[in-house]
Write a structure and sequence with these properties.
Radius of gyration: 22 Å
Distance between the termini: 76 Å
Structural class: alpha+beta
Largest sheet: 6 strands, antiparallel
Strand content: 15-25%
Order of helices and strands: HHHHEEEEEEEEE
Shape: globular
Length: about 170
């Protein structure tokens, strides 16, 4: 083997090893379901299989929480909910929003100017050719809606949530 061939072999072997290490770290080469479950396990406290979510949630809640759907505007009873209380995730019951931060955005979806501390997470959403900020439950990863910067003071934010993704509990807000 010449010196040039040996160097090429060493570079190729190193690149191959690096590639395998990267693939393993990102779950490439595993079955998609296994990779997705491993990623979810690392991110969220509440983990369920797709079959378990389907059994737990009605069809509309499943479509929104697990498949990032959107309910039709003005269809959620929570849009007209004005009592003191808490709005919790329909998937894992984590309290998300207080009625104290709810406002009528006239959009057809329950809207809030601030979530409860450590209740939600946010990710970049580039679906439909636009950039939006998706809001999900911090504990189970369920899709809740989106946040926009056209809300009222004091935050100027509008957390536009799908009512079917939440359950309301009256009482202390």
């Amino acid at each position: 083997m010449t010196q040039t061939t040996g160097r090429r072999f060493a570079i190729a072997a190193g690149a191959s090893t690096l590639g395998l290490a990267i693939a393993h770290a990102f779950g490439w080469g595993t079955r998609p379901a296994e990779a997705a479950e491993a990623a979810e396990s690392a991110k969220f406290e509440v983990i369920r299989t797709d079959a378990e979510w389907r059994k737990l949630l009605d069809a509309n809640a499943y479509a929104v929480l697990r498949k990032e759907g959107t309910e039709r505007p003005y269809t959620s009873p929570l849009n007209d909910e004005h009592r003191a209380g808490r709005f919790a995730c329909a998937g894992c019951a984590l309290d998300l929003f207080s009625s104290k931060t709810k406002f009528d955005s006239r959009t057809g979806w329950p809207s809030f100017w601030q979530p409860l501390d450590h209740a939600v997470g946010q990710t970049e959403d580039r679906t439909f050719g636009m950039l939006r900020t998706e809001v999900h439950c911090r504990r189970c990863g369920g899709h809740l809606g989106h946040v926009f910067d056209d809300g009222p003071k004091p935050t100027g934010l509008r957390y536009c949530m799908n009512g079917v993704a939440m359950k309301f509990t009256p009482g202390a807000a």
